[in-house]
Amino acid sequence: xxxxxxxxxxxxxxxxxxxxxxxxxxxxxxxxxxxxxxxxxxxxxxxxxxxxxxxxxxxxxxxxxxxxxxxxxxxxxxxxxxxxxxxxxxxxxxxxxxxxxxxxxxxxxxxxxxxxxxxxxxxxxxxxxxxxxxxxxxxxxxxxxxxxxxxxxxxxxxxxxxxxxxxxxxxxxxxxxxxxxxxxxxxxxxxxxxxxxxxxxxxxxxxxxxxxxxxxxxxxxxxxxxxxxxxxxxxxxxxxxxxxxxxxxxxxxxxxxxxxxxxxxxxxxxxxxxxxxxxxxxxxxxxxxxxxxxxxxxxxxxxxxxxxxxxxxxxxxxxxxxxxxxxxxxxxxxxxxxxxxxxxxxxxxxxxxxxxxxxxxxxxxxxxxxxxxxxxxxxxxxxxxxxxxxxxxxxxxxxxxxxxxxxxxxxxxxxxxxxxxxxxxxxxxxxxxxxxxxxxxxxxxxxxxxxxxxxxxxxxxxxxxxxxxxxxxxxxxxxxxxxxxxxxxxxxxxxxxxxxxxxxxxxxxxxxxxxxxxxxxxxxxxxxxxxxxxxxxxxxxxxxxxxxxxxxxxxx
Length: 556
Fold this sequence. Notes:
Blueprint: H1 12-22, E1 29-35, E2 50-51, H2 53-62, E3 66-71, E4 78-79, E5 85-87, E6 91-94, E7 100-101, E8 116-120, E9 128-132, E10 135-137, E11 146-150, E12 155-159, E13 162-164, E14 174-176, E15 181-185, E16 188-190, E17 193-194, E18 200-202, E19 206-210, E20 213-215, E21 218-219, E22 226-228, E23 233-242, E24 245-246, E25 253-255, E26 259-268, E27 271-272, E28 279-282, E29 288-297, E30 300-301, E31 308-311, E32 315-319, E33 322-324, E34 327-328, E35 334-337, E36 339-344, E37 347-349, E38 352-353, E39 360-362, E40 366-372, E41 375-377, E42 380-381, E43 385-388, E44 392-394, E45 397-407, E46 410-411, E47 415-418, E48 422-424, E49 428-438, E50 448-450, E51 455-459, E52 462-464, E53 472-474, E54 477-481, E55 484-485
Parallel strand pairs: 1-2, 1-3, 3-6, 4-7, 5-8, 6-9, 7-10, 8-11, 9-12, 10-13, 11-14, 12-15, 13-16, 14-18, 15-19, 16-20, 17-21, 18-22, 19-23, 20-23, 21-24, 22-25, 23-26, 24-27, 25-28, 26-29, 27-30, 28-31, 29-32, 29-33, 31-35, 32-36, 33-37, 34-38, 35-39, 36-40, 37-41, 38-42, 39-44, 40-45, ...
C-alpha cells in the first residue's frame, strides 16, 4: 500500500484560530521595540525604542500591554548571552533572519550562568510570550542551559523557529512547568540530548504541537523527543519524528499525562531500549489516548512494542494508521498491556517480533481488545527458537476481531511459531467475525491456534492456503457458524475442505489491502446472517448479493 503523503504546512488561518484558543485573554497592545545591537549588554541605541535584545526585554517587562520586539537588521547575527533572558510581561519577539543565540556553558570564558536561555513568567502571572523565527543553538555541557523554561501561569507560542544541539543534564530543551501552556507550530528540534524529554518536557500543563519536526533527539531515560508528564493534556498534529531515541521508554513520545490526541504525521526510525519505539503510553484508569492517521515505520524497541507500547487501565484508540517494518521483542508492531483498546482501519505489515506477536501483542493485564477493518500482512516471529502469534497474539482478556484480513503471517526460516495468523493463549475469550486468514505458516495452526483453556467463537470467517501447520489447531472450546476452511482442520463440519477461490492480495478499495472472493467462490452469499455487520473491511455495504459473503470483504 502506498503511504499517504502528509502536508506539514499549517494554514495561517488554522494557526491563528489555535493561538486564539490558547491565549484566552489578550492583553492590550503595547509598544514596539527594535533590536539593533547584538551584544549582550542592556544598552540602548540612539534611535527611539532601539537597543540590544536584553535592553528591549527590560523595557517590555516594565511597559504595560502586549509589547512587540523585532530585529531590524537584515544580516544573520549570532547573539551570545551570559545570563537568562527573563520575561515577566507579555511580549512577542519576531525575527525572519535566523538570529542565533548560542550560550557558552560553564567553564568557558564568559560562560552562561543560569538554567535556560529564556525564562518565561514568574510562576504566578498569566504571561503570554511568542517567540517567532528564532534559531536557538546550544552546547554540550552537563550544566549548560536548556533553550526555554515556561513557568506556571505562563504560555509560550514557539513558531517557525529551531532549537538544536542542546546537550545538557536537564529535562526538556523546552520545559513547561506545572500550570504552563506550551504551543509549538512549524518548529524544528534537532540533535538535542536531555535527561528526559530530549526536545520537550511538560508537566501538569498543556502541550500543543502542530506541523513540527523532531530529528535525532535523545533522552537518557524516557521520551527521546517529547515527554508528556503527569497532569498534562497534549495534542500532536501533522508532525514528523525521525531517528529519535530513548535509553528507556518512548523513542519519540513518552506519555504519562491526563490525555493525548495525535492526528496525522510520520514516525520513522525512532528507537527505545525498553518499550515503545515510537510511542510509550502510560494510560492510567480514567484517562485516554488516541492515535489517528499516522505512519509508523521502521521503529524499534528492545523488549515491548516496536511502534507502540501501552500500559495502564485507561482507554486507547488507534485509527487509520499504517504500522510497517517495526521490530521488538514482544509486539513487533504494537504491544498492549492493559485497559480497553480499540483498533480500527490499521495496516500492519512486515513487523517482526523476537518472541510473541509479530504484528500485535495483547495481554499482561489487558481487559479488552477490539480490532476491526484492519490488515495483518507478512508479520513474523523471527530470531530462532519458539514464538506464538505471527500476526496477532492474545494472552488474556476479551478479544474481538471483525472484518479483517490476515495474509502470509508466520515465522522466518529457523524459527517456529504456533498460530501463524492468530494465536489465543489461556484465559482468552475471543470472537472472530468475518475474517479472511490465508497463507499462514506455523508449526501448529498456520491460520489460527488456540490454547486448551481458551474460548473461541468463529463466525463467517475463511481459512485457507496455509503454508505450514494446517489452517487451524484449536485445543480450546470453539463455537462456529458460517465459516469455511480448505483443509478441514478447523472442525467446521459441513463447511470444511472447501477451496476459498480468492483474488490476490491487493488494493480493492478502502484504506487497507484485502482478498475478495472471486465471483464463483463458495464464500459468496454463504455467511450466517445472524453475524453479518452492515459493512465489510473496505466500508462497502453488506450484503452485495442475496446474503453476506464469508470473509472480510464482499466479492469484488
